[in-house]
């Protein structure tokens, strides 16, 4: 039995931006699910405001939207900052 040497090693298939994007999307999914759950439970005094500008209804859809957009923007800005700063790293592999 011979091993297939044509395929790239596992580390090359799962490393890099693909993993970061997958984790980012998974976190957004969790944020949406938790927002929908909070909207379903609907505790008193929960009136989500998107960026302090847009009032959203305290429904499952409104809370899920609030969670996904808020977490998406915050994490997205941080990931873009890391990507920008990493351009100046002399030890990076190209």
From TrEMBL:
Pfam family, one: DUF7520
Keywords for this protein: Membrane, Transmembrane, Transmembrane helix
Organism expressing this protein natively: Halosimplex aquaticum
Chain ranges passing through the membrane: 21-41, 61-82
Domain of life according to the entry: Archaea
Name of the molecule in the record: Cox cluster protein
